[in-house]
Structure formats: structure tokens, C-alpha cells
Amino acid sequence: MILNVSGRTDIVAFYTEWFMNRYRAGFVDVRNPFNPKMVSRINFENVDAIMFCTKNPKPILKYLKEINKPILFHVTLTPYNKDIEPNLPPKSEIIKSIKELSDIVGIDNLYIRYDPIFLSEKYNIEYHKKMFDRMCSLLNGYVKNIIVSFIDNYKNVRKNEKVIGFREFTENDYKEIGVNFSNSANKYGMTVQTCFEDRNLSEYGFKVGECISHELAYKLTGKTFKNWTARKEQKCNCVQMVDIGVYNSCKHFCKYCYANFDEKQVNNNFIKHNVNSSLLIGELKDEDIIKERIK
Q1: If you write DSSP's letter for every residue of 99-167 in order, what string do you get?
Q2: How many Å separate Cα 14 from the centre of its chain?
Q3: Mean pLDDT of 41-68
Q4: What pLDDT score was predicted for residue 195?
Q5: Rounded Cα–Cα distance for residues 135 and 79 (Å)
Q6: 259-274: pLDDT as tens digits
Q7: How many CB atoms neighbour CB 293 within 10 A?
Q8: pTM of the prediction?
Q9: Is 184 strand, coil or helix?
Q10: The 35-43 sheet, strands edge to edge
């Protein structure tokens, strides 16, 4: 099994101490988000690799050599300011941490996500072209792979529509992004790709790939995996992963977030967090049904 830590929240940024406690204990419990009484127990002896997804890798850097599993990192690095990403550390600090991370896990095990792209009066095409090129220059020699995606109309996006102020993409927008991002990536020896986007920009030099491909998963683990069943109907070719996160528990409060849609609930969940619990949020209850998940 490949563990996703996490697409539902930023465990690395806010809950690293908890994760390391679970890793040392040898297991972690995860509530089913659609049937909360059902709890999956995951023993780390059954974990073949761990994919960390974060916007701030710094909290876990000092612990990585303790983790005796193949590791893959996706670090999201966007050009937005505090109006859109109110609780992120300065981007200069994140870039410093990315460089340290690259030295620890290796350049082949680190992907940068420029994700999501939206266009507004403030964050226009010229702004993105400039900032993407600057990001590539700052990470030259530390990163080879960049994944790009475009904003989706999630509940939280609709709620924050006036703050984000985004507009629809035109064909010329896609061309400007495709040509300029490809040129910037090539200039610094990097690749740029999309993953399951309506417009993959392959005609402008983008790779068409997955967040974690079957080839990469096999390279990391020596094993084959099923497709991600949650996206079977969407024909996504990413490998199946098991997410141990909880929705509405990320304190970054990014205005475009798909995993947060209720800031009050986020704060309540954060209060319920116990670094010594087997669950990320809350405690096990007598009525919970615990089943071991082995794949």
C-alpha cells in the first residue's frame, strides 16, 4: 500500500509530531469520511511507500532519516499572497526548506505543484509567467519535476469568489501559460506536466502524466498497484493510495482549498487533535468498528 499524507489536510505542516508518534507506534487509525463509525487500522509494516503532500515541509525535515520507507514528496508552491494564502510562512522560507528536502530525499523523489493556477486582475498572465520563471530559477538544481493544475469550482472557491476574483481561461491564456512555462522549465532542466486536466497543454511541450504513475510506484516499491478507484469513472491513471487525513482540519485557510469548506469546523477539529491519539482528530469510541487494512 502507498500511504497519502495527505490530500485531505496538511499533516506535515500542522501534525508532524502526531505522524511521527504513529510511525513509531507502528499503526495509524483513519475514520471513513463517509461512514465515521468505520475505522481503518493501517499497520506500517503493510506500507510500501509514503507520499507526503504539503505546502510547508520544514516541520518534518529533521525526522525523515528516521522513516525507513521509500518516500515521495509533493510540495505545493504558488505565487499568491496573504489575501489568498493567509497562514503560509514566507515563500522564501518554503523554498529554503524545499532545497533541504531535495538534499535529503533526492531530486527524483520531489515534485513541485504549481497548483492551482487562477487568473484575476491581480494575478494575471504576466504575473504568473514572471513568478513561474522565478520559481524555476530559485529551485534550479534541486527540482526536476513540476506539476501544474487549474482552479476548480469547489464549494470553498465559490464561497470565496469575491476574494479570489478569478475569471475563465481563454484559449490564448492556455497558450501563454503552455509556451512560457515550458520555456522556463526547459531553461532550467525541468519538466512541467499536468495531471488529469481538461487542457493538458501537451501541444506546448507539457508532459501528460500522473501525480504518481504506475512506473514511479514500481520504481519506489518493486510492486504493482491498482488505479486510484476514487477516480475510476474519470479515467485517472494515478495509482491507488490510502489517505490518512481528515477534511476540514488544515489551518492554512487557502481561499481556493478543496479540502476545507468550513473554517469553524477546522478550528473545532484542531482543538480535538491529540498528538497521542491513534486518530488525527479525536479519539476512538466504543461504538467504532475497527478493521485492519492491508492494501
Answers
A1: HHHHHHH-GGGEEEEEEEE-B-SSS-HHHHHHHHHHHHHHTTTT--EEEEEE----HHHHHTHHHH--B
A2: 14
A3: 98
A4: 81
A5: 9
A6: 988 899 999 999 999 9
A7: 13
A8: 0.94
A9: helix
A10: 27-32, 35-43, 289-293
Please enumerate, as own/partner, the contacts of 97-104 that have beta carbons within 8 Å and a separation of 24 or more. Answer: 97/56, 97/57, 97/58, 97/61, 98/57, 98/139, 98/142, 98/143, 99/139, 99/142, 100/57, 100/61, 101/57, 101/61, 101/64, 101/73, 101/75, 102/142, 102/143, 103/142, 104/61, 104/64, 104/65
Are the C-beta atoms of 76 and 53 separated by less than 8 Å? Answer: yes
Sign of the dihedral through C-alpha 53, 200, 223, 259: positive
pLDDT tens per residue across span 74-123: 999 999 999 999 999 999 999 999 999 999 999 999 999 999 999 999 99
Q: What is the pLDDT of residues 129-155, one digit of tens each?
A: 999 999 999 999 999 999 999 998 888
Quick one: cell of 152? 476548480
Q: Which of 263, 262, 283, 261 is nearest to 272 (CA)?
A: 283
SS3 track for 55-114: CCCHHHHHHHHHCCCCEEEEEECCCCCCCCCCCCCCHHHHHHHHHHHHHHHCHHHEEEEE
